[in-house]
Design brief:
The structure holds two protein chains of two kinds. By secondary structure, chain A is of the alpha/beta class. Chain A is built from 13 helices and nine strands. The longest helix of chain A is centred in the C-terminal third of the chain and has 18 residues. The N and C termini of chain A lie far apart (67 Å). Chain B is 43% helix and 12% strand. The chains are: A alpha/beta, B alpha/beta. The interface between A and B is large, with 38 and 39 residues.
């Protein structure tokens, strides 16, 4: 048995032991990797990082509320064919001309091993994951119109992200390697910020982190700020040349961290409450 | 060796089966665990846990299974040695008994004792004088008053798997615990059905092809109305009295149901303790609605969701005129009204905020003979919505 590939993150994507173990398991056992976690913790970026580490191309399938499983495999453009038959354009007898492979279909048909990202699988209908069970398991499907099989030449690495909004069906979960991306602890977060903003003054980073974690731990926030918000916020601080940050009512660019009006109210509320306690 | 661990996982409510066992075996055969307990923890977690709701249970099962094994780790040997060295260096600081203890135990002896106790002890232990635990006076454990104990778990050193599991940081994600509005909304979303109505706005491909073929190839476009939600729900909530502790939970459920956009109609009514003849449109019991009128307005395909603790004095449920409202003279006992509601609607459930452990030996068990009852947790809510959308037959066959 070949030694399994080990994923160690990339220069711009930092990982921890748990995430590496999950990716390794998914790669070695050739199972889809299901990644869940709060928005903004880098679920989608993981797929890019894995593709980069493996040197494989990345195919992305953004799932929307109206997406159906069939669209990922192939679509048969009947209207075009009817239209062509009516006006006599092209070879109507060749059905293959009207079959268009979807992202999953292209991943199977590819000569090279690819990384396929099925992004935000929970956005679709509740039954959506069940419709893909067989295809993801066997990595092949059948095109009824042409009576042809599309089987994966190289099993693609499938990474599925979900926002933890909807429960996914059990049968689907059982076939996946599961990973829940934790919110990074302070030490890892400092390294992540360091990767994105290398030449930043340490004092500012410390102050920003301090304020950030305090805000994150506040009560009654509907959308707690996460990694991507912190990185954006520090970017803003850097570009606008802010030298020091203190947790106070007029925190610079608070809008990048808290994006809901109720959250801003809750923030102001607890800040004044906090100072009352201290005095 | 991991098979007993899988059974332990099942005991803790992590649903693992043959599939997980085989995957884990393959992963171990490929050496994905790096022959270490830490590696095993992460690999097993990736393969056996399928939802963050089970992470905490996994951590607990892992602790229960492997807490002793860590004692055989090489790292511990070093810790023991250091402790012993440390203690001997500061011999004069120790009391007489402690000095005797240090001198009486050599390394092997101490290690053997430690492992022995680890094996005897099955669960976490705090504040004792013998077991390994925290805040005690045993030589083993942490945060104790013995000063120079061996640290077990807790901080320091690299983060080992048992310590990671011990931190139990996934507790907030347990799905059988708290519920917030968003989670409730997601659970309620399971209850939906579609029905085509309205203007013809959508291209009906199949009919178009048929019509075009019949038309000898002349393109004939057929449209149809888009599909729209077609679920109508009645929410009946118990307020006041014994329901007061659950006010917060109830208001969250209320806002979740109000936000549910996938229902065609939602009617909300209130009652106190039990339904007697009337329900009310407001929480202050204004605007009464006769139950008969309600049943007349709402045909059986409405889904009925009752919410309440179903806890009352037996006579309030079983006797005529049992209502605790003084001006209420009622010809039928409460239970009869409940049965009437249940019989009228094709599918109905009762959500109970009381934990299922308290469901026996009181009026709850009586109400359960009428309504299918689920606890008001995320799991219970999800199951109840599944039950509602499937209808009565399935659950009856199950029980």
């Amino acid at each position: 048995m070949a030694t399994p590939i080990r994923f160690k993150g990339t220069a711009s994507y930092l990982t921890n032991e748990a995430l590496e173990a999950s990716v390794d398991c998914a790669l070695a056992l050739e199972k889809p990797l299901l990644v869940r976690g709060e928005p903004g913790t880098g679920k989608t970026l993981l797929a890019e990082a894995v593709a980069e580490a493996l040197g494989a191309p990345l195919l992305t399938w953004h799932v929307k509320s109206t997406t159906r499983a069939q669209e990922g495999l192939y679509t048969y453009d009947t209207v075009q064919r009817l239209y062509d038959s009516r006006f006599g354009d092209g070879d109507v007898k060749d059905i293959r001309r009207y079959i268009k492979l979807g992202p999953l279909g292209r991943a199977f048909a590819s000569e090279q091993r690819v990384v396929l990202l099925i992004d935000e699988v929970d956005k679709a209908d509740i039954e959506f994951p069940n419709d893909l069970l067989h295809e993801l398991d066997k990595m092949r499907f059948h095109i009824i119109e042409t009576n042809e099989d599309v089987a994966a030449k190289q099993r693609p690495v499938v990474i599925i992200t979900s926002n933890a909004e909807k429960e996914l069906p059990d049968a689907f979960l059982r076939r996946c390697v599961f990973h829940f991306i934790d919110f990074p602890e302070r030490e890892l977060m400092t390294r992540i910020v360091g990767v994105h903003h290398p030449n930043l003054e340490q004092g500012l980073v410390d102050q920003a982190m301090e304020a950030f974690y305090k805000i994150r731990n506040m009560q009654r926030l509907r959308k707690r700020p996460s990694t991507s918000e912190l990185v954006d916020w520090i970017h803003m601080l850097k570009t606008m040349g802010v030298k020091d940050v203190k947790l106070e009512k007029n925190l610079p660019f608070l809008g990048t961290l808290l994006k809901k009006e109720q959250d801003l109210v809750a923030y102001a509320d607890q800040l004044s409450g906090g100072s009352r306690w201290r005095s | 060796m991991f098979i007993p661990f899988l059974y332990r996982l099942r005991q803790h409510g992590v649903p693992v089966g043959t599939q997980e066992a085989l995957s884990l075996a393959r992963a171990l055969a490929m050496g994905l665990h790096d022959s270490s307990l830490d590696g095993f923890y992460y690999a097993a977690r990736a393969l056996c846990v399928h939802s963050e709701g089970h992470l905490d249970a996994f951590d607990q099962a892992f602790l229960a299974e492997f807490r002793g094994i860590e004692g055989k780790h090489i790292q511990l040997k070093e810790e023991l040695l250091n402790w012993l060295k440390d203690a001997k260096l500061r011999l004069e600081d120790l009391s007489k008994e402690e000095r005797e203890l240090v001198e009486s135990l050599d390394l092997e002896e101490l290690k053997r004792l430690f492992e022995e106790r680890m094996n005897e002890q099955k669960e976490r232990h705090d504040r004792g004088n013998r077991w390994v635990g925290t805040a005690g006076t045993s030589p083993f454990g942490r945060e104790g008053q013995r000063g120079e104990g061996i640290r077990v778990g807790g901080e320091g050193g690299s983060r080992s798997a048992v310590k990671t599991a011990d931190a139990r940081k996934y507790r907030p994600y347990r799905s059988d615990l708290a519920l917030d509005v968003r989670q409730m909304e997601m659970a309620l979303r399971r209850l939906r059905m579609w029905h085509r109505e309205g203007a013809d706005e959508e291209l009906d491909l199949d009919s178009t092809i048929d019509a075009t073929a019949k038309n000898v190839g002349e393109l004939e476009v057929i449209t149809r109305p888009p599909s729209r939600p077609n679920t109508r729900v009645i929410l009946l909530m118990d307020v006041g009295g014994s329901m007061d502790p659950y006010v917060d939970l109830m208001s969250r459920l209320f806002s979740a149901t109000k936000k549910a956009s996938h229902w065609k109609e939602l009617r909300t009514y209130y009652f106190h303790n039990c339904v007697y003849g009337r329900v009310y449109k407001t929480e202050r019991f204004d605007e009464p609605v006769w139950v008969q009128d309600l049943l007349h307005e709402c045909p059986p395909h409405y889904k009925l969701i009752m919410v309440g603790d179903a806890l009352m004095a037996p006579y309030e449920l079983m006797r005529q005129g049992g209502s605790i409202a003084l001006n209420d003279t009622n010809a039928l006992p409460g239970i009869a009204w409940l049965m009437m509601l249940h019989q009228h609607f094709k599918s109905s459930v009762w959500l109970n905020p009381e934990p299922p452990a308290y469901w026996e030996g009181n009026t709850i068990s009586t109400v359960r003979t009428v309504f299918e009852m689920y606890p008001l947790t995320l799991e219970g809510l999800t199951q109840s919505m599944q039950y509602l959308s499937r209808g009565r037959g399935i659950a009856r066959a199950r029980s």
